[in-house]
Design goal:
two-stranded antiparallel sheet; rod-shaped; f41 fragment of flagellin, N-terminal domain; mainly alpha; about 325 residues
């Protein structure tokens, strides 16, 4: 039987190689012991990465849902605040207009028309609300306000009804201007189509539907503009005409109250659906992350024992290396 001997250089290379392998094992097992996660996931799953891939895809999808629902929640909350403020202005002004129409005093007419013009400008401001530079009530067009400012919009309306001989004619022109296909859409409107439904959870969508063209908001603008125009001596300066305009304006504001409430209620339902979807998505995310951690988990006791084994091997290699490096020819010959 022949013996194979190794030279000093070969032994040195072998020891270095073995030391490198042991150090790599030690680092890997130390990482597993510290983090509780397997360092070699392919070995951990026996090369079956299908479940992890599916979980990762689901978590990516849920992360996208979380971004969408968070943004929609912020948008819907801001829109709800604006709708409530608009309804509050209209609801407060309507009885004041009726009272002024009954009093038939010029100073009261002037004061209420001025209040109506301020309310009109305020409502237009709410409808031009933007969040993070994106218009909320402009539908698909979000890079600029959907309506002109209050003064410019009221001037457009005044131009449309200019020349009316009676209050009835003025109202007819105003109705046409605010109707579908009228001046509000063709002249004043700078927005786009309503937003499309957006996915907020698996198999579920939600839509932020209100725009400045929604029926309840159209009618509110019409009622406020009618009251504001009473202060511009259209169609005449007589007390009867102004009283009729204020009464008609109050009727429009009161009549549009149910439509405004409907918009707010529908938005409230959407807000609740978004909140429910967020809760379900969060629960699913937690469950998936727990399943992922179980797949990736390393046995801490096994990792600790392997760390100890690797440390022992490393100490033996160091001792052997020190002994070999201390050998001398004189010791061998002696």
């Amino acid at each position: 039987m022949s013996l194979v001997s190794l030279g000093d250089m070969a032994q040195s290379f072998m020891l270095r190689r073995h030391m490198g392998l042991v150090k790599t094992d030690l680092a890997r097992h130390t990482q597993e012991m510290t983090t509780g996660l397997a360092a070699d996931i392919v070995h951990q799953t026996h090369a079956d990465l299908g479940p992890l891939t599916a979980i990762s895809a689901s978590l990516t999808r849920l992360d996208a849902f979380a971004t969408v629902t968070s943004e929609m929640q912020l948008w819907s909350g801001t829109m709800q605040t604006a709708l409530q403020a608009i309804d509050s202005r209209a609801t407060e002004l309507a009885p004041q207009l009726l009272s002024a129409a009954s009093a038939r005093q010029e100073t009261t007419f002037a004061a209420l028309s001025s209040d109506a013009e301020a309310a009109f400008a305020s409502v237009v401001g709410y409808l031009n609300t933007s969040l993070d530079g994106r218009a909320l009530f402009g539908g698909t067009v979000t890079d600029h306000p959907p309506l002109p400012n209050g003064k410019d919009l009221l001037d457009q309306i005044a131009l449309a009804v200019d020349g009316s001989a009676t209050v009835a004619e003025l109202r007819d022109r105003l109705d046409s201007w605010f109707a579908a296909g009228g001046g509000l859409e063709t002249v004043a409107w700078q927005g786009g189509a309503p937003l499309e439904p957006v996915a907020i959870a698996q198999g579920e969508t939600a839509q932020l539907g209100p725009t400045a063209l929604s029926d309840g908001l159209r009618e509110t603008l019409k009622g406020l503009s009618l009251a504001a125009l009473a202060g511009r001596d259209l169609p005449g300066s007589g007390g009867d005409e102004k009283a009729a305009m204020l009464t008609a304006a109050a009727d429009v504001l009161i009549g549009s109250g149910s439509a405004r409430a409907g918009l707010s209620a529908d938005l409230g339902v959407t807000e609740q659906r978004i909140a429910d979807a967020q809760a379900r998505n969060a629960a699913e995310t937690t469950a998936l992350k727990l399943a992922e951690s179980r797949i990736r988990a390393a046995d801490p006791y096994v990792a600790a024992s392997r760390v100890q084994e690797a440390e022992t091997q490393l100490q033996l290699i160091y001792a052997l290396t020190a002994r070999l490096s201390g050998l001398r020819l004189a010791d061998y010959l002696g």
